[in-house]
Amino acid sequence: MGADYYKTKESVKKYIELAKDVSGAKLIEELKKYLPAKSELLEIGSGPGTDWKILNTTYHVTGSDNSKEFLNHLNKTIPNEKFLELDASTLKVDNSFDGIYSNKVLHHLKDGELANSVKRQYEILKPEGIICHSFWKGEGSEYFKGMFVNYHKKDDLKRMFKGYFEILLIITYQEFEEGDSLLLIGKRK
Ligand SMILES: C[S@@+](CC[C@H](N)C(=O)[O-])C[C@H]1O[C@@H](n2cnc3c(N)ncnc32)[C@H](O)[C@@H]1O
Questions:
Q1: Which domain holds residue 52?
Q2: How many structural domains are present in the chain?
Q3: Strands 40-43 and 60-62
Q4: I need a labelling partner for 97 at 20 to 30 A (CA). Which of 37, 75, 89, 187 fits?
């Protein structure tokens, strides 16, 4: 956390340009198998807003990010919607939700922060609420462009989530290279 990459006007502009052809459309199709339409959904790390727009065609979505620059961008490009300033590790929000979604966000959390996030997700979800998160697959962690990146394997994600969530789906998929990503869908216990 605390990485400048998502925090300056220039780098946010660059990220939005680089990510313009990338979306979580396929992940959202998986989510739809488990979370009914019109559910109240929290998105963590909405970033450019690409997935928010897709999610919003099916759900009542509350978008959020911990970067003021991304929030400025979201407020400017999607007016009349309220985006929350939320950190994934603490999720300081009073509302409760039917579902929580993130696409390539939670890998920025260290193991202890992810453990706290999982507990907070349990607390802000309604009974039997659904989570849907993607991660980079691999081992260990590194700093990439000053950002902390935590790689995960299926087993460590299962271990992290299983205290609070029943794992409904955990699959490997391709973002850029074969087998580089993991999708986890779970149900609040
Ligand atoms: C790789 S981008 C993904 C954005 C979007 N989900 C997408 O798929 O285009 C990561 C996003 O997560 C946000 N982010 C990083 N760490 C975060 C944290 N601890 N809490 C909330 N958002 C965070 C960044 O500001 C950025 O918008």
A1: 4-188
A2: 1
A3: parallel
A4: 75
Kindly report, residue by residue over 7-51, the tens digit of the pLDDT.
Answer: 889 999 999 999 999 999 999 999 999 999 999 999 999 999 999
Cβ 186 under 6 angstroms from ligand 1:
no
Pick from 59, 70, 73, 65: nearest CA to 28:
59
Cα–Cα distance, 41 to 5 (Å, whole number): 27
Cα(12) to centroid(ligand 1), Å: 11
CATH code at position 79: 3.40.50.150
- Helix (H), strand (E) at residue 118: helix 111-124
The pLDDT confidence band at residue 3, using thresholds 50, 70 and 90, is: low
Ligand 1 pocket check for 175: Cβ under 6 Å: no
